[in-house]
Specification:
Elements: E1 35-38, H1 70-83, E2 89-94, H2 104-117, E3 123-130, H3 137-145, E4 149-153, H4 158-161, H5 174-186, E5 190-197, H6 205-215, E6 220-225, H7 248-265, E7 271-272, H8 273-282, E8 299-302, E9 307-309, E10 320-323, H9 329-334, H10 336-347, H11 351-354, H12 359-362, E11 372-373, E12 379-381, H13 385-407, H14 414-420
Parallel strand pairs: 1-2, 1-8, 2-3, 3-4, 4-5, 5-6, 6-7
Antiparallel strand pairs: 8-9, 9-10, 11-12
One iron/sulfur cluster binds at residues 290-291, 296, 299, 311, 313, 345, 366-368.
Amino acid sequence: MAEVNKVPVAITAKSASVGPAMPDLRPPTAPESFHVMAKPTGPICNLDCEYCFFLSKEALYPGDRFRMADELLVTYLRQLFEAQESLPEITVTWQGGEPTLMGIAFFRRAVELTEHLRRTNQRVNHTIQTNGTLLTDEWCELLADKNFLVGISIDGPPHLHDHYRVDKRGNPSSDKVLRGLRLLKRHNVDFNILCTVNAANQDHPLEVYRYFRDDLGASFLQFIAIVERDNETGFQEGNRVTERSVDPDAWGRFLISVFDEWLRHDVGKVFISHFDAALASWLGVTPAMCIFGETCGNAVALEHNGDLYSCDHFVEPRYLLGNIVETHMIELMASSQQRAFGIAKRDDLPQYCLDCDVRFACHGECPKNRFGVTPDGDRGLNYLCSGLKAFFDHIDGPMRIMADLLRQGRFADEITETFAAPGRNDPCPCGSGKKAKFCHQR
Ligand code: SF4
Ligand code: SF4
């Protein structure tokens, strides 16, 4: 039987930590740092967004109440902090389903626990991903007070957002989401917008981007391509996608249009995760987005009952690493199963990707989307390939310029002047030899 770790009394006021203690010797294959997306309500959500892959995950736990118990919360946080004890900062991430359904007391308790668990001088970053509909003044006071970074899911202006983001009765959700966002802003809570790009909004990139920037005042944006397999589980069978899924070429056009607008007006003012990741790749640094890393495997998903899965996109029986009540999280992270999962991102690339000019930035994107076939007939090409290729080709010139500026100790936003200035018939400053109006001023 596993030894039960002793934790401070204040932590055990409501219940004891369960599960194994940190092993005396850190497993040599364990990553120094890793990211856990904890789902305290499992896939349960108060909305019914048509494309949400997590709603179907209820079937994994039939009859379950989908609520993280207090003793599991204590166990989870204890293990998370033990496993990353030497780091200067630790990020605690909550998502769902809809994590705010746990109620505010759960998060007060979680924050209190992290205060007991962190080393002196160790910083804790609290983040939560929410649809925003349940936020209140009381919520926002906690989020502001504890410096939470809140990710709020919005797919564009209401007529685009409401296309798929509906409640259980099929009613639009935008009013409630925007009310939540207004509360966040009133309380000065840091937020970023997570926008899924799907069949409904894929052809409106500038309308979507300008709405976030100008109407909502957002400075941090993340775009996520909706790619849903058309089968019962939405997972790993067949290569057809649902009609809600983004079209690969439209995905490329979407990113390109937003990039050109950003390049001329917003570098250094608006931060977009795809562009940040690309700049890191052009600088030869590992990007923060796992999908553009050579390997992955350091971002796992924790279910409400302690089950740990290889990734948020692989919450499937085959990718269950174990349960943290039985095996310490650090051992699951270090397991050969998880290490193999991460390395497969690199080793399973088809030759077509290995020969690709933009592989250094793309790395075949996420394995979840690799169900296409290459022109040579090899399996494993990313469904989004044509769009990704177009996007990375298009940004090559500006990315080289920004990377050079940074290498010289200057600021990347100096590029804005260069690209905002030329006439539409002048040569594009990116060096492509094309007129600006056919290049980065389209
Ligand atoms: S499978 Fe995809 S989302 Fe998951 S860690 Fe790897 S690259 Fe990231
Ligand atoms: S752009 Fe296409 S071919 Fe190139 S690495 Fe990405 S998925 Fe592979």
